[in-house]
Design brief:
By secondary structure, the protein is of the alpha/beta class. The strands form two sheets. Strands 1, 2, 3, 4, 5, 6, 7, 8, 11 and 12 form a ten-stranded mixed beta sheet that branches. The protein has a two-stranded antiparallel sheet with strand order 9-10. Strand 9 and strand 10 form a beta hairpin.
């Protein structure tokens, strides 16, 4: 699908099922725009569940990770980004940090995150999946639609065209 978030805003901003995320995320990955249906995980400084979800073969999905906004470790690195690509994920939003950003920037995936951090996460296998996540002024819900480009992030209950 070819889109720009600016055009989607022009066409749909008056609709109640439409949300725009606060501009707090940095751009990573070689794919500058992506969209799909949302899958959510909520973790804190532990990426075991992130790996488990990215191991699933999917089509037209974007993983949204609520990492609590932590700046103390990374929840995603180049190995998990490659795993996401191999399994069909369109992109990943991380309310937290990533690492291996120079490598990730060369990979054909779109990633948005708060920052980078060189330390890997803990491995305690704690977290939740498919919860409604609230950060950046948006409620991210499983199976809602997300549209991401260099101008921002839009979330909608329904597919936008």
């Amino acid at each position: 699908m070819t889109f720009t978030t600016a055009s989607l805003c022009d066409a749909h901003s008056e609709e109640s099922h439409f949300q725009i995320a606060e501009p707090m995320f940095k751009v990573y990955g070689a794919k500058t725009s992506f969209c799909g249906q949302i899958t959510t995980v909520k973790v804190f400084e532990d990426n075991v569940l992130v790996r488990t979800v990215l191991e699933e073969k999917v089509s037209n999905r974007v993983l949204v990770i609520d990492g609590g906004g932590s700046h103390r470790c990374a929840l995603l690195g180049d190995n998990l980004a490659q795993l996401a690509i191999d399994n069909g994920w369109e992109g990943i939003i991380v309310y937290g940090c990533i690492r291996d950003s120079a490598i990730i920037d060369q990979l054909p995936i779109g990633i948005r995150a708060l920052h980078t951090h060189p330390l890997k996460s803990h491995k305690k296998n704690r977290g939740d999946r498919d919860l409604v996540l609230s950060f950046a002024g948006v409620n991210f819900k499983k199976d809602h639609y997300i549209y991401v480009d260099s101008d921002g992030i839009i979330v909608s209950e329904t597919m936008l065209s």
